[in-house]
Amino acid sequence: MNMRRAVPTLFVAVAALLGAMLLCPSSFAQEGVTVPETKQVLGLEGVKPNKTGILVVEKGTLGFKFGKKKVDVPANSIEDVITDKDSQRAIGGFVGTLTMFAPYGSGRFLSLFRTKIDTLTIRYHDSSGGLHGAIFSMPIGKAEDVKKELLAEGAKTTIPIEPAATGPAPATPKKEEPKQ
Length: 180
Fold this sequence. Notes:
Layout: H1 2-23, E1 33-42, E2 51-58, E3 61-66, E4 69-74, E5 78-89, H2 93-98, H3 107-110, E6 114-125, E7 131-139, H4 143-153
């Protein structure tokens, strides 16, 4: 008796779950990449150098939001995406300028006060075919995610993404030369 009631109830539950998945496919799709605290160092039209904002890659575009404004670059117009790791001074302003006058040899100590960042450089064409470039700096570990998402959205690159290392490289045995 209990089995006869359990099967229809299970069938209805599975059908409701499948129906919900079909009606809401966007909730299961990848949302793109959002990187807050991104600095546009140079290059985007209509954006002053060193402007801080939010970098967003979604729906085939790379967007940079700053204040109430947003600049979009279509991913398929990006002909090169390059990432790198860098560092910047952690001490800025007047005190940072005074460190230039520190005695010779103190550079090693002052180099301890640097923060690591990722850089993202893009080369793209505007709607009239003009070639442009833009450089972004962002928190460490974010640039590769942005690059992967841009490539998935249609951007191109001259430097392919390196696969993650799974362990130490296999050792190749050295062949011994015969002694004479």
